[in-house]
Amino acid sequence: MQEEELQTLHKPKTLTLFKNAFQSVNPRIWLILAILFIQVLAVFIVRSPPVTFSSRKIFGNHNSGAGDCESGRVYVYDLPAMFNRDLVSDCNDLDPWHWQCGIATNGGYGRKADELAGVVPEGLAPAWFRTNQFSSEIIYHNRILNYKCRTKEPESATAYYIPFYAGLAVGKYLFSGNTVKERDWDCEMLLKWVQEQPYWKRSNGSDHFLVLGRITWDFRRLTDPDQLWGSSFLNMPAMQNVTRLTIERAPGDYFDVGVPYPTGFHPHSDSDLFQWQRFVSNRNRTRLYSFIGARRKDSKNDFRGFLLSHCQSEPGSCQAVDCAVTRCSNGSSVILESLLDSDFCLQPKGDSYTRRSVFDCMVAGSIPVFFWKRTAYDQYELFLPVEPESYSVFIDYKDVLNGTSIKGVLERYSGEEVRRMREKVVEIIPKIVYAKPSEGLESIKDAFDVAVEGVLKRIKKQKERLEVDGDRHNIRD
Q: pLDDT tens digit string along 71-108?
């Protein structure tokens, strides 16, 4: 009984002491503490990710990084220098076709884009370069030498990479009067060399792949002797089983795999990528749409000229950049600023169906507007969503020429629809950029990872299918 009374007496005494201590504090101190609490809370809110875009949705799908090499490993041929290094050693050799001699600089990434200072966040300026759109052969070669799934033991390889700079070999003859034999010589010598390798003989090249830094049509010269453009590399019998990664593929050709054009953004880390995604997600865009390009005086039906005139007639809605007046070079601040300021960007076909601007547009977080399906939908299956309407707008060019208002179509999208489409575009960014570290990013797959992993998967499945067919044949026998 005494113990229970003692506990009863202690409880109110403790409460009384706490109450007295609380009341003894000067009210000014409580006021100061309240003000400090409000300031800390304000700082926390400002530094927290904006609620406009979900960090989980933007970044979450890309944190499936390195892992094991489940699809196999790749062996890299050590080619004679004449097939790669020697093709980029003489800068003057490239001058006639205006490659600015920067294609071989910095592992294919080009020199730093200092002109973008003040346009991109200060901490991301080192991740921007004046990258040539035809430099993928060099970028892939340098990256694959440090690839996590590279093997130096050819017997253990699933696929074999041929580091031939075909685009450089062919490109230097495109704008000159060289003979057909001269245009094909490098390619013929390369095939002669690789056909002597034991691993080629074992598969007739069906488990081999290479990268083409130019569009597929530059390697498909017609048999007509008057058609002197390009090389006949892809028409040569030995190339019929070889997989080629190219910035523009031929429709219906299984062995052509479309890969993104290199842009100027090459993140050094996961953090660079996340910071850029946040930057473009929350950009205050002041124009409905933009168009960047120039008229083609030698083209009878110049749709790009039509779009340029249309855009210039809608200055309140459309940002026009006339590349005949403004220098639209790699690393141009005018181009990037125009894309960053626009909700949508008009993407007609270029000199061929595809154009680098498609990827510049999406990297800037702008929603692409296509006028030909072959510009993207039939090209980059490994990299773009299967639902084109989730990240882009399609308006048939014939409808535009017949009076359909581009502005009217785009204005019909609600703010919420634009927000969702931009979120999808920003989600795509990791898969369409080439990271700067030679070993890739820490945990995110970039365009290189997606492309090479895709090749390994298709070759592995192909070999498994052949093994099954072989077993069935043996059973019948």
A: 999 999 999 999 999 988 555 444 444 554 567 788 89
For 297, residues 6+ apart whose C-beta sits below 8 A from its C-beta are: none
Structure tokens of 105? 């600089």
Q: What span, in angstroms and rounded, lies between the C-alpha atoms of 233 and 224?
A: 15
The pLDDT-based confidence of 461 (bands split at 50, 70, 90) is very high
Q: How many CA atoms does the CB half-sphere of 123 hold within 13 Å?
A: 8
pLDDT tier for residue 324 given thresholds of 50, 70 and 90:
confident
Question: pLDDT digit string (tens) for 326-372?
Answer: 878 777 899 999 999 999 999 999 889 999 999 999 999 999 999 99
Residue 76 contacts residue 163 (beta carbons within 8 Å) = yes
- For the entire predicted model, the pTM comes to 0.84
| Residue 38 banded pLDDT, cuts 50, 70, 90 | low
Q: Tokens representing 14? A: 């403790």
Q: Map the chain to HEC letters.
A: CHHHHHHHHHHHHHHHHHHHHHHHCCHHHHHHHHHHHHHHHHHHHHHCCCCCCCHHHHHHHHCCCCCCCCCCCEEECCCCHHHCHHHCCCHHHHHHHCCCCCCCHHHHCCCECHHHECCECHHHHHHEECCCCCCHHHHHHHHHCCCCCEECCHHHCCEEECCCCHHHHHHCCCCCCCCHHHHHHHHHHHHHHHCCCHHHHHHCCCCEEEEECCCHHHHCCCCCCCCCCCCCHHHCHHHCCCEEEECCCCCCCCCEEECCCCCCECCCCHHHHHHHHHHHHCCCCCEEEEEEECCCCCCCCCHHHHHHHHHHCCCCCEEEEECCCCCCCCCCHHHHHHHHCEEEEEECCCCCCCCCHHHHHHHCCCEEEECCHHHCCCCCCCCCCCCHHHCCEECCHHHHHCCCCHHHHHHCCCHHHHHHHHHHHHHHHHHHCCCCCCCCCCCCCCHHHHHHHHHHHHHHHHHHHHHHHHHHHHHHC
176: confidence class by pLDDT, cuts 50, 70, 90: confident
Round the average pLDDT of the chain to a whole number and report it: 84
d(CA 67, CA 60) in angstroms, rounded, equals 16
Q: What gap in Å lies between CA 337 and CA 292, rounded to an integer?
A: 11
- Backbone region of residue 360 per phi and psi (left: phi > 0; alpha: psi in -120 to 50; beta: other values): alpha
